[in-house]
Each structure stands twice: as structure tokens, then as C-alpha cells.
Backbone:
């Protein structure tokens, strides 16, 4: 009330608007992803409202690789190791991620304990603090020596930094250095990598190299990040989740194979995203009858 009385009777045009008055660098610290009151937890930001579930796909591929004998080092700048662990537990227990966070009954606790034992036996190791690509190289070298790592996952490339890039460089130069650095890691240690990135919000302004069609998803080469990645990767894939189709907890999605080094690309894989357990699966009658035959 006291502050309200101090306000002038007539406000200027600028006073009626919110504005950023300062920007100061701070140390990198662990952060927590936000969530919304939606059955599948989906929320969209930026002007283009790009719907993806990159992190869910990354953790799913990490579990699959580990189940087939790979030793996985998972770098995440998107969420904490605990949140990733929750998302790995959900499909093994068929318990929604939100329920794992906020309380379980006795039956679900027993299922969770069994799933934890399964995950503990897998060779998946998390690093949610490393940010610079040179530190990624150092950590990878150490984990190869200690744990025999043969696959690294980076989520997201946009969030990593490259200290060796001059301070006056723009963001595209930094992202390019991150992609090149990850390729150097692969070649130096002879391991595989999966690196995720998010397209910039202005991707629709960029013209794809392919002939335009009815596809809504961006092409792999439509953003600065993807063009830099194309110089480093062997396979470039775009994940696209549809809006306005399916139902909450069962949204159609597609993996577009847009780039393959020295080979013809252009295939696509239809999927369904189950937001309850943060997992992708193939369209099947028993899981999502309304999506059967969806293409």
C-alpha cells in the first residue's frame, strides 16, 4: 500500500511496459525444468511454438544402448540427473513421472525398487555440471579409463560452451566449436556420440535445400546450428511431435532422417509419444487405437 501511494497519478508509456533493465553474468548452477498442469506435461515457448521431446528420446536411447551392452556417459545441460532418473524409471514401472516425484503407494514402491535394480545394473553415468567442450573431452577420457565408456550423449549442444573461441565471436561460432569438439572426441577415443540440439525460433525464415512440401517440421539444414552440425555428424535426424492430433499422453511424432554422410537420406519413422511415462513407441492398436495406421 505504501509503495502504491508513491506512484504518480499519470504513468508514462514506458512505465506501463515491462522491460529488462540489466543483465549480469553469473556462475553456472544446477537448475530445474518447469512443468505445467497438463496430462502429458507439454508446454511450448518461443514464437514458433516448436514441440519436441528431445530429452525423453535421449534417455530412451541411453537405456536401449546400455541394455545392449554399451557403456554410456550422459552429459545433460537440460535437467538434473535425478530428473533423468525419474524419466528412466517411469516406463519400467508404468508409473507417471509426476507420481514418482510426489508420492507412491506400497505396490508402486515395490515396482520402483525392482526398476532401480535394473537401472543400477546398466552402465549409464550422468554428468550434469560440465559445460565446456574441453572439459567434456577430459571427463570422457577419464570415464573411458575408469568405466570403459563407448558412447556419449550430449543434451543440448546449444547449452555447451567453448572457452577457446574468442570472446568477440558470435553464438554460431561457439556452437560450431562445440560440434567440432565432439567430433574430435569421437575420433580421438574411437567411440560413438549422440548430440541433441534445438532449432532456433526463426527456422521458418530459412529456406530448406530440399524442394518445399507439406511437411511442417524444420529440415536439418534450416538453422545455423544444423548447418554447422552437418560438417561434423554422420547422420542428422529431426524429431517432430505433432499438435492437435491423438490425445493427451499419446501424441503422434516423427523421426525424419534428413542427412547421412555419403549416402542418400530422406526416410522417416512414425512414432507415438506417451507423455505419462515420457517414452516413444511405435503406433500400435492396443496402446493408441486412434492412431493406428497414422502416417
Residues:
Amino acid at each position: 500500500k505504501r509503495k502504491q501511494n508513491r506512484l504518480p497519478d499519470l504513468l508514462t508509456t514506458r512505465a506501463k511496459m515491462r522491460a529488462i533493465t540489466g543483465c549480469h553474468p553469473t556462475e553456472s548452477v544446477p537448475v530445474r525444468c518447469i512443468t505445467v498442469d497438463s496430462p502429458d506435461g507439454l508446454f511450448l515457448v518461443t514464437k514458433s511454438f516448436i514441440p519436441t521431446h528431445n530429452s525423453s528420446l535421449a534417455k530412451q536411447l541411453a537405456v536401449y544402448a546400455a541394455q545392449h551392452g554399451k557403456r554410456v556417459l550422459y552429459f545433460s545441460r537440460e535437467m538434473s540427473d535425478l530428473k533423468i532418473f525419474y524419466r528412466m524409471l517411469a516406463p519400467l514401472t508404468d508409473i507417471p513421472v509426476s507420481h514418482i516425484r510426489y508420492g507412491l503407494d506400497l505396490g508402486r514402491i515395490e515396482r520402483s525398487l525392482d526398476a532401480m535394480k535394473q537401472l543400477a545394473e546398466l552402465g549409464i553415468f550422468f554428468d550434469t555440471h560440465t559445460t565446456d567442450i574441453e572439459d567434456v573431452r577430459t571427463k570422457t577420457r577419464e570415464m573411458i579409463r575408469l568405466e570403459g565408456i563407448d558412447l556419449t550423449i550430449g543434451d543440448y549442444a546449444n547449452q555447451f560452451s567453448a572457452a577457446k573461441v574468442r570472446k568477440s565471436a558470435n553464438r554460431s561460432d561457439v556452437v560450431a566449436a562445440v560440434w567440432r569438439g565432439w567430433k574430435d572426441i569421437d575420433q580421438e577415443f574411437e567411440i560413438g556420440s549422440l548430440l541433441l540440439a534445438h532449432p532456433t525460433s526463426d527456422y521458418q525464415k530459412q529456406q530448406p535445400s530440399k524442394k518445399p512440401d507439406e511437411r511442417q517440421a524444420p529440415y536439418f539444414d534450416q538453422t545455423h546450428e544444423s548447418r554447422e552440425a552437418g560438417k561434423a555428424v554422420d547422420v542428422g535426424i529431426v524429431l517432430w511431435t505433432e499438435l492437435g492430433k491423438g490425445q493427451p499422453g499419446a501424441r503422434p511424432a516423427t523421426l525424419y532422417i534428413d542427412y547421412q554422410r555419403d549416402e542418400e537420406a530422406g526416410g522417416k519413422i512414425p512414432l507415438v509419444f506417451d507423455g505419462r511415462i515420457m517414452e516413444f513407441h511405435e503406433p500400435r492398436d492396443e496402446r493408441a487405437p486412434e492412431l493406428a495406421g497414422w502416417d
Notes: The chain has a mean pLDDT of 78. The radius of gyration is 22 Å. The longest strand covers residues 251-260. The chain has eight helices and eight strands.
